[in-house]
Write a structure and sequence with these properties.
Elements: H1 20-28, H2 33-38, E1 41-42, E2 56-57, H3 62-75, E3 81-89, E4 93-95, H4 107-118, E5 122-126, H5 127-133, E6 148-152, H6 163-166, E7 172-177, H7 184-191, E8 196-201, H8 209-218, E9 223-228, H9 230-238, E10 244-250, E11 258-259, E12 277-282, E13 285-291
Parallel strand pairs: 3-9, 3-10, 5-6, 5-9, 6-7, 7-8
Antiparallel strand pairs: 1-2, 4-11, 10-13, 12-13
């Protein structure tokens, strides 16, 4: 009697590839190499996701792998990391002479900026940026939680009618100086609003980046994005308070305008900062990611490059 024909072995169940949207959702929850591996990432031996092309998803699309290589280093940077983002023209300006910055860089860079916000506990802007742009500083171009919005305003000059104080979209921390010309009635009025908190520092010297980072860390805000403007980012860069700098350059020439990075530099080119750098294409723009130092547990701010010169001015 002839037996029943044997069946071919069952084909292995196909797992859907990790696309860009799924990759971003997984990346948002990664803070350790072990978590990266559990999420389906193959991480280089040094745990870095260091852009050498070997960090990828086990089953991922090219777009998903690009996101992993771009953001995994920041995800793994630890609970205390300070990073900054600027978008500028080829000749180094973040806005025209009239202050128009809509938009220096393209939509891909806007999505990148919003991803940085989603990976931060707090997003910091100076008063100049808050006054000129009336920004929202929320996460809208990608899924993610809104960071606490921190306004550095030693003179208390940001209008209370600006969206940071009125829209209720995310918590706002207004940082003012006790020895400045801040109107106490205005700060009291701001403090009574839902979602707005006022932090009064003893004097303008307390606005030094190292002190600000410590103040935010004491509030549980250890992952800090410094978003603008150029004076504020330059000051954090010079004073050794940045671990990473994301600088997006658009193929446009302005001739003059509001500069991005500006601080007194060294006399000799050999003494210029030359940090390890990665380059990524964002549409027509080019993103440069500068690794300025590795944060250490218990030390939110480093001083690896504090001799690069003093940024002009105080917090915007």
């Amino acid at each position: 009697m002839t037996g029943a024909p044997s069946l071919p072995p069952a084909a292995p169940t196909a797992h859907p590839a990790v696309d860009a949207a799924e990759a971003w959702e997984r990346l948002r929850g990664i803070r350790s190499v072990a978590a990266a591996e559990r999420a389906g990432l193959i991480v280089t031996a040094d745990g870095g996701g260091d852009g050498d092309g070997r960090t990828r998803w086990r089953d991922g699309t090219p777009e998903a792998d690009d996101l992993a290589r771009r953001y995994l280093p920041l995800c793994l940077a630890g609970p205390h990391v300070t990073f900054a983002q600027l978008g500028q023209s080829l000749d180094g300006f973040i806005a025209s002479r009239t202050g128009d910055a809509d938009y220096v860089t393209g939509e891909e860079d806007r999505a990148h900026l919003h991803r940085l916000r989603a990976l931060a506990d707090a997003v910091v802007v100076g008063a100049g940026t808050a006054v000129a742009d009336d920004p929202r500083l929320t996460v809208r171009a990608c899924p993610g939680d809104d960071p606490v919005r921190v306004v550095l305003d030693p003179h208390g000059r940001v209008p209370l009618g600006h969206r940071l104080f009125t829209d209720g979209a995310a918590p706002t921390l207004w940082v003012v100086s006790a020895d400045g010309d801040t109107d106490r009635a205005r700060t009291a009025a701001a403090a009574r609003r839902d979602g707005v908190d006022v932090l009064t520092l003893r004097d303008r010297a307390a606005f030094a980046p190292a002190n600000l980072v410590r103040e935010l860390a004491d509030r549980g805000l250890g992952r800090v994005l410094v978003e603008g403007g150029g004076v504020t980012v330059s000051r954090f860069l010079h004073e050794g308070a940045l671990h990473r700098l994301y600088l997006t350059v658009a193929p446009v020439l302005l001739g003059d305008g509001i500069p991005g990075l500006a601080f007194p530099g060294p006399d000799s080119m050999r003494d210029a900062l030359r940090p390890p750098t990665r380059r990524v294409t964002l549409g027509e723009d080019t993103l440069f990611e500068l690794d300025l130092g590795t944060p250490q547990a218990g030390h939110p701010v480093g001083h690896q490059y504090a001799g690069a010169g003093q940024a002009r001015g105080e917090a915007q």
